[in-house]
Amino acid sequence: MKIFKFGVVALFILLNGCSSKKSDIEYKTISEYELFEQGKKEVQSGNFKEAVKTLTKLENEYPASDNYSDTLVLKAYSYYANDKYTDAILTVDDFLHQFPINKNTSYMYFIKGMSYYNQIMDIGRDQEFTLNAKKEFEILVNLFPGSKYANDAKWKLEYIDNILAGKEMDIGRFYLRIHKPISSVNRFKNVVDNYQTTIFIPEALYRLVEVYYILGIKEEAIRYASVLGYNYPNSTWYKKSYQLLTLKSKKSK
Q1: Alpha-carbon span 63 to 66, nearest angstrom
Q2: Of 121, 199, 207, 239, whose CB has the highest number of CB atoms within 10 Å?
């Protein structure tokens, strides 16, 4: 009987010992510093999926962390680098809400702008992503003109303006093809007024000459032809407008 009692006590101690060790393993907390360093290493190694998990754990367990803003930056970049653009945008928005003035604010605007920029479709598609990218890059350039990301954003904005101008031109040409010149006027005027640095300006001016020629509004046709000739005297579009107005002049005699 004594042996049996000893055996029970020994088994109880053994089980308690195993349970204690298991508990230590299961409930061992990882420090804020360890999580942050782990997340950084995962980002640096390109393991973005695991980085997001680690950084999210850091967010949840240490909301008052000194590294909280940097955690959101790394998390936004991880989503962006892994083509998870919607998640990247949401993370940036969270960051900007909590840290509107921060050493990384300009970078986060850049990440948000690029998340839209990388989803831009051709001019035949809806341009929602293009317009959103334009908005974010303009904020970046206006608020942080000296930022190292601002110069890149300016180049992106030039490309974006060409896409948006191209979209307007595409619609304007369509209206001309279906014999709705009045509907095309606003499209071409929008290009001339709002996208003056794009490659479409000479054609837009010519199209306005063409539209007003069709409508029989001589003064406006001549006015736009003059603007085209003054700014782009060697342009093929100016030669076409000159030929068009010369033809009209001959017909009226």
Answers
A1: 9
A2: 207
Burial 172-191 (b: 16+ CB within 10 A, else e): beebbeeeebeebbebbbbb
What is the Cα–Cα distance from 149 to 127, expressed in whole angstroms?
23
CA gap 181, 196 in Å, rounded: 22
Distance between alpha carbon 30 and the CA centroid of its chain, in Å? Answer: 35
Cα angle 30, 36, 41 (rounded to 5 degrees) comes to 110
Orientation of helix 150-177 relative to helix 128-143, angle to 10°: 140
CA distance 75 to 188: 43
CA proximity to 45, closest of 10, 16, 78 = 78
CB atoms < 10 A from the CB of 139, how many?
A: 16
pLDDT by residue for the chain (253 residues), tens only, comes to 444 343 433 332 333 444 434 444 444 578 999 999 999 999 999 999 999 999 999 999 998 889 999 999 999 999 999 999 999 999 999 999 999 999 999 999 999 999 999 999 877 788 999 999 999 999 999 999 999 999 999 999 999 999 999 999 999 999 999 999 999 999 999 999 999 999 999 999 999 999 999 999 999 999 999 999 999 999 999 999 999 988 655 555 4
Structure tokens at 162: 């060409």
Both tokens of 160, joined, read 């974006």
For the chain, the distance separating the N- and C-terminal CA atoms, rounded to the nearest angstrom, is 132
Q: Which amino acid is at 158?
A: E
